[in-house]
Amino acid sequence: QVRLVESGGGWVQAGDSLRLSCNASTGTVRGYPMAWFRQAPGKERAFVAGISGFGGSTDYADAVKGRFTISRDNAKITLFLQMSSLEPEDTAVYYCAARSAYSSSVYRDPANYASWGQGTQVTVSS
């Protein structure tokens, strides 16, 4: 498994922006699909955005489409989530995840991901 470490969370006001980062422990993730999920209190973990191995394809949950952008820097083996126009409904713990096989597809089901970070809290006040 790959060790993933998220950073960049914080407390912001509605309308603000944040950028989350996820650093991987090994360069093997370069060809692995990766994704961001989030879990709000009392809710199940939900897909936010995903990116294919080497970054050719992306996918977004309807709730964040047009406001969030996922990207990856394979030289630094880092995954990013640029979040803009944040809303109180975006408040959650955000997790990054990596699949354990090369693929040019993007996956929304968390069961497809073998490695997970510890999460970073994002709180958006109204």
Characterise this structure.
The protein is mainly β and 126 residues long. Helix content is 0%, strand content 45%. It contains no helices and eleven strands. The chain has strands spanning 4-7, 10-13, 18-24, 34-39, 46-51, 58-60, 68-73, 78-83, 92-98, 115-116, 120-125. Strands 2, 4, 5, 6, 9, 10 and 11 form a seven-stranded mixed sheet that branches. Strands 1-3-8-7 form a four-stranded antiparallel sheet, with no helix packed on it. The radius of gyration is 13 Å and the shape is globular. The N and C termini lie far apart (38 Å). The relative contact order is 0.32. The mean pLDDT is 95.
Q: Segments where pLDDT lies below 50 for 5+ residues? A: none
Number of E strands: 11
* Topology pattern, helix = H, strand = E: EEEEEEEEEEE
**Class per helix and strand makeup:** mainly beta
Strand content: over 45%
The overall pLDDT average reads 95
The 3D shape can be described as globular
Helix content: under 10%
Distance N to C terminus: 38 Å
* Largest sheet descriptor: 7 strands, mixed
Radius of gyration: 13 Å
How many helices?
A: 0
List keywords for this structure.
126 residues; mainly beta; 7-stranded mixed sheet; 4-stranded antiparallel sheet; 45% strand; globular
Describe the structure in brief.
The chain has about 130 residues and is mostly beta strands. The chain has strands at about 5, 10-15, 20-25, 35-40, 45-50, 60, 70-75, 80-85, 90-100, 115, 120-125.
